[in-house]
Amino acid sequence: MSTYDMYTSPVAAGTWDVPAAGAARFSWEYDDGRQRLLDLYQRGKDKQWDAAKRIDWDQPVNPLNVMETGDEFCPIYGSRQWEKLNQAERDEVSHHLAAWLFSQFLHGEQGALTVAARIVESVPDLDSKFYAATQAMDEARHVELFSRFTKEKIGLFYPVNPDLAKLLADALGDSRWDMPYLGMQVLIEGLALAAFGVHRDITGNALVRQLLAYVMQDEARHVAFGRLALRDYYSQLSSAELADREEFVVEGCYLMRSRFIAREVWERLGFDVAECVEFTEHSPLQQAFRQLLFSRIVPCVKDIGVWGPKVRAAYVDLGVIAAADSDLDALMRADEDIADRLEREHAAELAARKQEVDAAISSGTEA
Fold first, then answer.
1. DSSP string, 60-90
2. Lower CB count within 10 Å: N or C terminus of the chain?
3. 3-state SS string for 25-46
């Protein structure tokens, strides 16, 4: 079955064409490079993995409760709309929310794949081209696994969220080489990394936790790449040039705030969209979720030097300014450690299961 047949609303066949501006830049300097980026490039090579082999795809997923969480994690839990739903209707909400969430993860990763390729083309220094090439492979793997998971385990797709699409188009359509970095590595990847982390930590499903943890292990390197490259470059910009980047960050952050409201789900299910959005915007759950979502973006924006009054005021308005003091390096190390721990635990479970089967076979043979 074609993916087009599994979308909740019609999606035009063919490609979404985003006009790209700017030059393809070549460098004839092959010897010198920033050691930090070359070290990151080496880690990118060392950490490549196969989504078809590393992930145990046989683990079960209930499409009516993909995350295996309680009702209280539904964005409209406790609302007037929620209270009038029967159990079958609540299950349908859960199914559509999961389809919408993982569809946005999938579309975002395809955006990251395209932007990584764009960075290889447009960035002026060779050490950045090296690392961006490893990121392109990472993103291809992420598209592969999210596509497979959404198709096989959920069975339903949602179109790309308009806010995500706008930010992707803005980042790709700018002729300046650093803007795809800023849009993708800092804003889109930073938000996605935080969203992956929230869902990794609340899910009761082993397969969901595994695939999110492994993707996050890659994404931690990607955000580090953006920080290293942009911190060096932005330290050389004039105040007017920085102000232009700050304007882009502010607009992008407001777009990203709207990205996880799930308006499309309420529209598809025929709910009162304005009521659902209003409830979601002011629910304690959403407020806490937003704080976590910006926990990776705000300290990164501060670290790269895009930290003027307009940016700080926007983060105060969004209620996320406290995240500026987060230890981003510690968060990234924890992401990598969690993925390694889950892999060891899963390998131990498989070994124990094999031992049980071998013992049962041996016992039957002896009998």
1. ---TTSTT---GGGSTTTTSHHHHT--HHHH
2. C
3. CCCCCCCCCCHHHHHHHHHHHH
d(CA 91, CA 88): 5
Instruction: Render the burial of 229-250: b for 16+ CB within 10 Å, e for the rest.
Output: bbebbbeeeeeeebeebbebbb
Mean confidence (pLDDT) of the chain: 90
- Residue 367 pLDDT exceeds 70: no
Q: For residues 181 and 129, what is the distance between their CA atoms, to the nearest angstrom? A: 12
The answer to whether 250 and 312 are in contact (CB under 8 A) is: no
Other Cβ atoms closer than 10 A to 7: 15
Q: How far is CA 264 from CA 19, 21, 74, 192, 273, in A?
A: 26, 31, 15, 18, 9
pLDDT band at 366 (very low <50, low <70, confident <90, very high): low
Query: Pick from 113, 73, 89: which is nearest to 262 by CA?
Result: 73
The burial of 274, by beta-carbon neighbours within 10 Å (0-12 exposed, 13-18 middle, 19 or more buried), is given as exposed
Distance CA 149, CA 169 (A): 26
112, two tokens? 């990251």
With H, G, I as helix, E, B as strand and everything else as coil, classify residue 318.
helix
| Per-residue model confidence as pLDDT tens digits over 67-115 | 999 999 999 999 999 999 999 999 999 999 999 999 999 999 999 999 8
Q: Cα(70)–Cα(182) distance, rounded to whole angstroms?
A: 36
Query: Which contiguous run of DSSP H or E holds residue 366?
Result: helix 328-366
